[in-house]
Automatic annotation (TrEMBL), chain A:
Annotated region (Disordered), positions in chain: 1-24
GO cellular component: plasma membrane
Protein name: ABC transporter permease
Organism from which the protein derives: Pseudonocardia sulfidoxydans NBRC 16205
Record carries keyword GTP-binding: no
From TrEMBL, chain B:
Native source organism of the sequence: Pseudonocardia sulfidoxydans NBRC 16205
MF (Gene Ontology): ABC-type transporter activity; ATP binding; ATP hydrolysis activity
Family: Belongs to the ABC transporter superfamily.
The protein's name in its UniProt record: ABC transporter ATP-binding protein
GO cellular component, one term: membrane
Keyword field: ATP-binding, Nucleotide-binding, Transport
Xref: InterPro entries: AAA+_ATPase, ABC_transporter-like_ATP-bd, ABC_transpr_TagH-like, Bact_Polysacc_Export_ATP-bd, P-loop_NTPase
Residues of the ABC transporter domain: 25-253
Domain of life of the native organism: Bacteria
Keyword Ubl conjugation: no
PANTHER family assigned to the protein according to its UniProt record, in alphabetical order: TEICHOIC ACIDS EXPORT ATP-BINDING PROTEIN TAGH (PTHR46743)
Length: 291, 256
């Protein structure tokens, strides 16, 4: 190979002015990250599927286990708590099962969200990719889990018919809102947890607490009707997860839609994304240093 | 289409070193309450790169030399966009293919074929492009039906082959190579070298960090000498290698 050497070693002459280049802490770069990540749909779509397939590798039923284990838990809890609260199993079992599968999605986003960048440490440090790629992959994976669990809901609706009507289609925008919120919670808790490693255990224990604070194995309306605990039951309104569960569960069970919950969810979505975007703008470029 | 380019101006890369204590909330919370206690509340920092000015254009073939810990790998990661400079600016235009750690991004539980696809997607290829290259990769790696097996059944050498097969099959605009292409048998290495040469021909910009003078002489014409996180010298390969090693390396290798 001929070593014809030009004087290109001198860097100064042809350098492009970089002053107009957006810095690491800029809105342009934060939004660009989200856009670039979205463009890599084939990649995170594939990785999300792989995550699921891998979990059930070599098992005969494969991802069907997601639905089966969910069905077992939902049935057991439905019967147990149905007996405890003296509820009618025909309505209470679908109620618990639907609540549980929504909860599963929410919990997945919160729990795995805080570990999203820590778990992908190797990829982040060795392959340049938008940070949002890992976020999309996680929310997509949770969506796939949810899709598997919806089978249980379908079966229950066949066994215990519910008055499903046009209003039930509200479940679609409701789930879209859940997915949207899964995005910001993952970004926000993921970035903070990468910097402060105490966050994941804190999040884990808080989530466990949230489960019991959320009307899943108990009915909010029933407690409110009971004068002995009515006042204390109001506290549940302070639990943001409750509103998320309600907006999706109501149309799925053919219940009347309560717009108060939609309003709360809407506000949380806007505020949450605002916080996540600020975090993304200021600390996105630091994540590679922190992992 | 815009030409690939790398522009780095006055860039520094500082690594915060969090020990177990300073990385926890406890310290941040208690620190707020009790006020600062000297340097205790500060996170120690390692300056990996300082005052880096580089401007590369299409056709540049740059060797990166320097002792261990001089900042070669960090500089490559800065160029790849993995690290954004703590101070200064860096602008990289073009599709970057970094070849740093061949094992990263490889999932031991899924088949070689799936790994090829995933790695290709990470390197900016599309699914279709990768599918059309699978046969070529299978032939080059000589893995044949082994590609259907999960990666954990592969030997180290076979993994390196697979990774090299993927990397050399793509069309990058900016190719960043970090050494560590060991653990392959000699016959295969000769073959890999041919493919590496072809890859370099295809790519717009090459930056190659290596301790192998022969490899560098084959692939590069200019060089950057890194020392203590700074650029000591940037110029023609022969001159820089001469100053770095203290003797005319290219002449010793019999190159003119």
């Amino acid at each position: 190979m001929a070593v014809t050497v030009s004087a290109e070693g001198a860097p100064a002459e042809q350098a492009r002015p970089l002053d107009d280049e957006p810095g690491p802490r800029s809105w342009a770069r934060a939004f660009n990250d989200l856009r670039q990540g979205w463009r890599q749909r084939p990649l995170w779509g594939y990785l999300g599927w792989q995550d699921i397939k891998q979990r059930y590798r070599r098992s005969i039923l494969g991802p069907l286990w997601i639905s089966i284990s969910m069905a077992v838990i939902a049935t057991a809890m439905g019967i147990l708590y149905g007996a405890l609260f003296q509820e009618d199993i025909k309505t209470f079992l679908p109620y618990v099962a639907t609540g549980l599968l929504i909860w599963n999605f929410v919990q997945g986003c919160i729990l795995e969200g805080s570990e999203v960048f820590i778990a992908n440490e190797g990829l982040i440090r060795f392959l340049p990719a938008p940070l949002s790629l890992h976020v999309y992959r996680l929310v997509w994976r949770q969506t796939l889990f949810f899709a598997h669990n919806v089978i249980i809901w379908v079966i229950l609706m066949i066994i215990f018919p519910h008055p499903l009507g046009w209003a039930s289609f509200m479940a679609i925008p409701a789930f879209a809102l859940l997915v949207l919120n899964g995005g910001w919670i993952t970004i926000l808790s993921g970035i903070i947890a990468t910097r402060f490693r105490d966050i994941p255990p804190i999040v884990a224990s808080l989530t466990q607490l949230l489960f019991f604070m959320t009307p899943i194995v108990w009915s909010y309306d029933r407690l409110r009707d009971n004068p002995a605990v009515a006042e204390r039951a109001q506290i549940a309104e302070l639990n943001p997860v409750m509103h998320f569960v309600e907006i999706l569960r109501q149309p799925m069970l053919g219940d009347a839609i309560v717009w108060r919950h939609w309003l709360v969810v809407g506000v949380i979505t806007v505020v949450g994304w605002g916080a996540a975007l600020v975090c993304m703008r200021n600390y996105r470029s630091r994540v590679a240093y922190w992992v | 289409m815009t030409e690939p380019s790398i522009d780095i101006r006055g860039a520094a890369v500082d690594f915060p070193i969090f020990d177990a204590k300073s990385r926890s909330l406890k310290k941040a919370v208690l620190g707020k309450a009790g006020g600062r206690i000297g340097t205790d509340s500060k996170v120690p920092i390692i300056e990996a790169l300082r005052d880096v000015d580089i401007s590369l254009r299409k056709g540049d073939r740059v060797a990166l030399v320097g002792h261990n810990g001089a900042g070669k790998s960090t500089l490559l990661r800065l160029m790849s966009g993995i690290y954004e400079p703590t101070r200064g600016r860096a602008a990289v235009v073009g599709k970057v293919a970094p070849v740093f750690d061949l094992a990263v991004g490889m999932d031991p539980e899924i088949s070689g074929l799936d790994n090829i696809l995933i790695r290709g997607l990470f390197l900016g290829m599309t699914k279709k492009q990768m599918e059309s290259r699978v046969d070529d990769i299978a032939e080059f790696t000589e893995l044949g039906e082994y590609l259907e097996m999960p990666l954990r059944t592969y030997s180290t050498g076979m993994r390196v082959r697979l990774a090299l097969g993927v990397v050399t099959s793509i069309d990058p605009e900016i190719l960043l190579l970090d050494e560590g292409i060991g653990a392959v048998d000699a016959a295969f290495l000769a073959k890999a070298r041919d493919r590496l040469n072809e890859l370099v021909e295809r790519s717009g910009i090459l930056v190659f960090a290596s301790h192998s003078d022969e490899f560098l002489a084959d692939l590069c014409d200019t060089a950057i000498w890194m020392e203590h996180g700074q650029i000591r010298e940037h110029g023609p390969l022969r001159d820089v290698l001469h100053h770095y090693k203290g003797h005319d390396v290219l002449a010793d290798l019999g190159r003119t």
